[in-house]
Every structure is written in C-alpha cells, then in structure tokens.
C-alpha cells in the first residue's frame, strides 16, 4: 500500500522537519538573551514562549518518528497513540505561544485600560477583540496579525475542542466509499465464520478486509460533518512556522522598545 504523499512531498516534509530544531533553538536563544524591562514580561517570554517553542520542535520530531510521511500500510496502535498525544501537546503549546507573546507585550509596555486599571486576563490576546491591547501594537504588526486571523481561528478551534470538548484523534484507517459495501459484507461473513467456529475462513476474511483499508494522515476531533480536520504532517510544520514568524516579529518590536 503506497504512502498518502508523493515522493516529492515526502522529501519536502522531511527536509522541513529536519530544520525545525535549529529554528526553534535560534529563536529560543534570542528570547533568553533579550533584556526585558519587566520581570513578569521576561517570565512569559522565557519560561513561557521560549520553552513552548522548544516543545513544538520536540512534538514534531515525535510525530514524524511515530508516523513518518513515507509510511505504507496500517500503523500500529502504539504509534497512533504516540502521534496523537504529541499533536495534542503541540496544539496546546502553539496556542500558548500566542498567549505568552500577548502577555509579554502587555507587561513590557505596561498596557492598561483607559482608566489606568490593569488589563484583565480576557483582555490580553493577539486579535482585535482585545481592543485595549490591540491599539498598542504597531500598525505593521497589526496588519500581519489581521492577515493571520484564519490561522488564529484554526488554532483556537482545535485548542478549544481539545481542552473542553472532543480530543484530537487520528483514525487508525479508512475505507473508500467505493469499498464500504464489500467491507461490510466481509465483516458480516467474518462474524458468521467466527460464531460457526471456522477459524480458517475467519482469518481469510480478515485478510480480505485488511486489503480494503487505507491509512490517511489526518487529525480530527469529531466525526461531525462540520468539524475541521487537517493533514497533520503539513499542518504541524505550517503552524510551527506561523508561531516562529510571530515570535520573530514581536522580538523585533521588543528590541525596538529597548533601543537595541
């Protein structure tokens, strides 16, 4: 059974994944070495964002190790569980990176409500809904954050479902709609053979069923028709690069604040 990806796509995914640790390490070091004026801002930047960006790299490595993009056939359950757990950790930390950047910015500039009262937790974020903090972000960065609104919606949707509703899940296999009737027929005959004690026929029917299965590298959180899903190898890399981009842009603004 061939891999879901083409040979060219497999090379692109593997090459991109191999560069993640170096990129994460460089960005982490830049945040650790930056001199923040506010101690709590530094905490969010270093023990928050920098630690999380490192975690994202480890999650990607674990997922690509458990379920490599050139995988052929149906993966073992242990590999599915390991990849699922690391994708869940990735989503939580990717969303957390955004929160840490927002908190770092708010604390470093001393952002407050118009009456001087400190911002509440719900007023700190990287979207325009957090209007008091949004007005303090330089216009070029606000434009980019506006362009990334679909991504913020994507990561928040996955994070909220994971934390409050249905955990992210990798289906162990799928069956083409063209083969569903045949698969169900074999399933019924399989049980009939098992009940009749015909082990040889039972095993033969199982083998025929296995040939109709195919693994697709998708992550979902519900089988509801309206629930989003994603090809997780590519999505993890895209999400990492978006977080890295945000980290670099905010770092430039932190440098500007400190005059470095």
In short:
The chain has 260 residues and is mainly α. 66% of the residues lie in helices and 4% in strands. The chain has 10 helices and 4 strands; from the N terminus they run H-H-H-H-H-H-H-E-H-H-E-E-E-H.
Mean pLDDT: 90
Our count of helices gives 10
Largest sheet: 2 strands, antiparallel
What general form does the structure show?
A: elongated
Q: Which runs of at least 5 residues are low in confidence (pLDDT < 50)?
A: none
Class of secondary structure makeup: mainly alpha
- Strand % is under 5%
Q: Considering DSSP H and I runs of 4 or more, what fraction of the residues is helical?
A: 55-70%
Structurally, the number of domains stands at 2
Strand order of the largest sheet: 1-2
Q: Gyration radius, to the nearest Å?
A: 23 Å
- Please write the string of helix (H) and strand (E) elements: HHHHHHHEHHEEEH
Number of strands: 4
N/C terminus separation: 55 Å
Characterise the protein shown here.
There is one protein chain. The protein is mostly helical. It folds into two domains: 7-172 and 218-258; 174-214. It is 66% helix and 4% strand. It has ten helices and four strands, in the order H-H-H-H-H-H-H-E-H-H-E-E-E-H. It has helices spanning 7-18, 20-33, 39-66, 77-109, 131-134, 139-147, 149-164, 180-196, 199-210, 232-258, and strands spanning 174-175, 213-214, 218-220, 229-231. A two-stranded antiparallel sheet has the order 1-2. Strand 3 and strand 4 form a beta hairpin. Helix 2 packs parallel to helix 10 (232-258). The longest helix has 33 residues, at 77-109. The protein is elongated. The N and C termini lie far apart (55 Å). The model has no long low-confidence stretch (mean pLDDT 90).
């Amino acid at each position: 059974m061939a891999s879901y990806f083409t040979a060219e796509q497999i090379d692109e995914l593997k090459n991109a994944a191999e560069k993640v640790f170096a990129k994460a390490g460089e960005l982490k070091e830049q945040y650790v070495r930056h001199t923040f004026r506010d101690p709590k801002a530094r905490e969010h930047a270093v023990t928050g964002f920098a630690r999380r960006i490192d975690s994202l790299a480890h999650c990607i490595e674990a997922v690509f190790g458990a379920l490599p993009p050139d995988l052929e056939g149906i993966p073992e359950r242990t590999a599915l569980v390991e990849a699922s757990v690391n994708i869940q950790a990735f989503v939580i930390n990717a969303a957390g990176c955004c929160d840490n950047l927002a908190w770092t910015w708010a604390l470093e500039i001393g952002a407050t409500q118009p009456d001087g009262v400190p911002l509440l937790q719900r007023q700190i974020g990287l979207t325009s809904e957090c209007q008091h903090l949004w007005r303090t972000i330089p216009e070029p960065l606000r434009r980019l954050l506006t362009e990334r609104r679909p991504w913020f919606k994507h990561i928040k949707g996955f994070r909220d479902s994971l934390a409050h509703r249905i955990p992210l899940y990798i289906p162990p296999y799928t069956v083409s709609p063209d083969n569903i009737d045949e698969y169900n027929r074999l399933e019924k005959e399989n049980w009939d053979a098992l009940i009749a004690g015909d082990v040889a026929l039972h095993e033969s029917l199982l083998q025929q069923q296995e040939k109709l299965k195919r693994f697709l590298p998708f992550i979902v959180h519900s089988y509801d028709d309206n629930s989003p899903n994603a090809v997780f190898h590519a999505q993890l890399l895209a999400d990492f690069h978006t977080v890295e981009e945000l980290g670099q842009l905010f770092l430039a603004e932190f440098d500007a604040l400190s005059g470095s």
